[in-house]
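I am writing to request your help with a piece of structural work I have in hand. I am sending you one protein, given as its amino acid sequence and as whole-number tokens for its backbone shapes. Kindly check, if you would, that the fold set down in the tokens agrees with what the sequence suggests. You will find the record immediately after this paragraph:
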Amino acid sequence: MKELVEVIAKSLVDNPDEVVVTEKENGKSILVELKVAPSDMGKVIGKQGRIAKAIRSVVKAAASREDKKVVVDIL
């Protein structure tokens, strides 16, 4: 899941070298934290959170194949 979020985020931002993704696993749930440069925050979140919601939907679909629950936090 970490790689998927990283690829998506790097394709959206102006400073791909500042994208940091961390992953913490607790049993069947995974917490993925995404950090980007402050100037790129709007590009990752999108208008009314549409892009953030789309990222979460894609990751959730990929996680359902592995029978896991994934939470994506944008910091």
